[in-house]
Write a structure and sequence with these properties.
The protein has two domains: 203 residues, Thrombin, subunit H (Beta Barrel), CATH 2.40.10; 94 residues, Pdz3 Domain (Roll), CATH 2.30.42. Strand 10 and strand 11 form a beta hairpin. With 382 residues, the protein is an alpha+beta fold.
Length: 382
């Protein structure tokens, strides 16, 4: 037994000695083995390939897009039961709990370095207070310069200088299939950029606005994007996001933007005179259907059928009668009632215009003195 113990102790001593020697001269042999993953890292200053990317367009346009927050004091209603002192004891005083403000959000586009911002009329329509959050983090109060409900456009202003105004593009040069970016503040999550294409041009008869000439896009647009920018791949403004077609309240790939050409015309009038002035002749009209075109012996289903005349209005004084088909205004062909409305609204009040109509199969030229289009709440005729 003593012999075995001696052998054991000697073996342990020799093993410890070997380990001690290896630890001193070859420590890597005893190091714990770990799995090492080698990755390839791009150089910090390597140039970034932007081919196929829209980052430059986004970087150019995003500083010009703002978030708009509005609030409205709720209307105070008095419960008739509170007139009774006993019932007041149980139902409380309406002044006990202050009513909560109604808050909403939208977007806007800086169009002037002096603080002018273009947005939608419905974003600021009922607001008592308006706050604008700039891309640099500043929040400023804003006031309404003027609005145009018939195109759903508005201009507001903040007291600031040297703001990053967006560059206006050419919406008349857009084509179906062109890539576009929508920038805004969807659902209040913060500034967001979405990408899509131009799906259609000249969309009208949607029942959204009185004057419709929408750019349709599949770039995702959601609540909060209203009034934001639709830009091309250069970052230039080509439209103001205005509405979506949706059954759920969110984007379904059908969004509508007001072309920048129309937005600029409205904006300039609002800034110059506080409102928009449009021509008016006082008629009610309907589109010429293929059936109507056949019954009136027309070559095609174009023009506007006059269904009603405002007595004493410009069209009435010019000799236009119900049943006439309005074919041209100042030599410009009318395709439908939407086109008629656009042409008439572009005329200056008190100017003269030549109206070509067809009556009983005979074309007649009539001269009308253009009137001023009434405000939307008072207007009953086109």
């Amino acid at each position: 037994m003593k012999k075995f113990w001696l052998i054991f102790t000697q073996s342990v001593t020799i093993s410890l000695g070997i380990v001690f020697v290896i630890q001193i001269f070859h420590p890597d042999l005893l190091a714990r083995r770990e799995h090492i993953i080698e990755v390839k890292q791009a150089a910090a200053k390597q140039e970034i390939n932007t081919a196929g990317s829209y980052r430059l367009a986004a970087q150019r346009a995003m500083p010009s897009v703002v978030n708009i927050f509005t609030s409205k004091e709720p209307a105070k209603t008095v419960d008739p039961r509170l007139n009774d002192p006993i019932l007041r004891h149980f139902f409380g005083d309406p002044g006990d709990e202050p009513p909560q403000k109604e808050n909403s959000l939208g977007s806007g586009v800086i169009v002037s370095a002096q603080g002018l911002i273009l947005t939608n009329h419905h974003v600021v329509e009922t607001a008592d207070e308006i706050e604008v959050a700039l891309a640099d983090g500043r929040t400023l109060p804003a006031k309404v310069v003027g609005t145009d409900p018939e195109t759903d456009l508005a201009v507001i202003k903040v007291d600031a200088k040297n703001l990053p105004a967006i560059i206006f593009g050419r919406s008349d040069q857009l084509g179906i299939g062109d890539v576009v970016l929508a920038i805004g503040n969807p659902f209040g999550v913060g500034q967001t950029v979405t990408q899509g294409i131009v799906s259609a041009l000249g969309r009208n008869h949607l029942g959204i606005n009185t004057f419709e000439n929408f750019i349709q896009t599949d770039a995702p647009i959601n609540p909060g994007n209203s009034g934001g920018a639709l830009v091309d791949i250069e970052g230039h403004l080509i439209g103001v996001n205005s509405a979506i077609y949706s059954r759920s309240g969110g984007s379904m790939g059908i969004g509508f933007a007001i072309p920048v050409s129309l937005a600029q015309q409205v904006m300039e009038q609002i800034v110059r005179q506080g409102s928009v002035t449009r021509g008016w002749v006082g008629v009610e009209a309907q589109d010429v259907t293929p059936e109507l075109a056949e019954s009136f012996h027309l070559k095609d289903a174009s023009g506007a059928l006059i269904a009603g005349i405002l007595r004493g209005g410009p069209a009435d004084k010019a000799g236009v009668r119900p049943g006439d088909i309005l074919l041209e205004i100042n030599g410009k062909r009318i395709q439908d009632t939407s086109g008629m409305l656009t042409l008439i609204s572009a005329l200056k009040p008190n100017s003269s215009a030549t109206l070509k109509v067809m009556r009983n199969g005979v074309e007649k030229s009539l001269t009308a003195t253009i009137g001023r289009r009434p405000k939307p709440e008072a207007a009953q005729q086109n």
